[in-house]
Hints:
Elements: H1 15-25, H2 35-38, H3 66-79, H4 84-103, E1 111-115, H5 129-135, E2 147-152, E3 163-164, E4 167-168, H6 192-196, E5 200-202, H7 228-237, E6 242-244, H8 249-260, E7 267-269
Parallel strand pairs: 1-2, 1-6, 2-5, 6-7
Antiparallel strand pairs: 3-4
Helix pairs in contact: 4-7, 7-8
Amino acid sequence: AMPRSFERGDQIVEPADLKVLQRYAGGRRIEYYEAETRAKRHVHVPAAGKHRLLQHHYSFAFVADPVQRSFYRRLIRDSMRYIDPIQCAGARLVDAVRTVSRDLGLGGAYYALHIRRGDFQYKEVKLSASRIVRNLRGTEIIPRGALVFVATDDPDGTCVHCRSQGKPCPRPAPGATQDDMPKGCPLDPSWDAFWRNGWQLVFSRNFTAVHSSNVAGALDASINPNYLGMAESIVCSRAEAFAGTWFSTFTGYIHRLRGFHGLAESTYYHSNGRTDAARSPDSYGRGYAREYRIGWTDDRGALI
């Protein structure tokens, strides 16, 4: 924690500052940025035990001056971002999705989902399309007829790389139900339930010149394939509403980007019991499972 003025001593003395700091700390021990620390060339912030320090920048550093707090959040927003080739690829992809939307008579509007499957270690969030539809309350969040951009590591809807307990998901036996499957292994991994719910789906591969289902040709074969996922996150960040995967830092960063664009309040999760977690009243928090408003707003709730 950095005091408002070093001239007034090393401790944060303003009662209002201390109150805000305690909200940030959330019961954690507070370490002040005092004279000894300032004299060091490097400051190491260790994680607990053998774990990584997987936290958001705003969850472990506090600047008492509210103007400076917002300044440093803007500095992170504007400086720690995707490089220009990724930003440009994402912009082309957004334009292409909106073109498809206009061609469908939807006026350029589209919705987005991020669905993490594959080897994701959190088995409870690897769900079937039918479960996702139920968690998103049918057509309440994403209306019938909407164009939905799906960012996923399983575009074919086969869960071929899905694993549970370190083993590939088994093929379901005839007559099996979801209860017969290991956790994290959808009985029906297809996206058919989305189509039955009236959603019109597109994936990033629909916009590459090398794919047979190309509809707009926004991205040619020269794009670095390592950039594609990041370009997808830009598309998700501009959707009318977005629903992502709980525990996923990819979803979390999309939530933060949507906050920068003023779209955070139309962000949801399709995971069990988490649908409205991104819209909860608590603006402060820590932990990698989700992002918090304080990453893109000031203490009064206004965008930084």
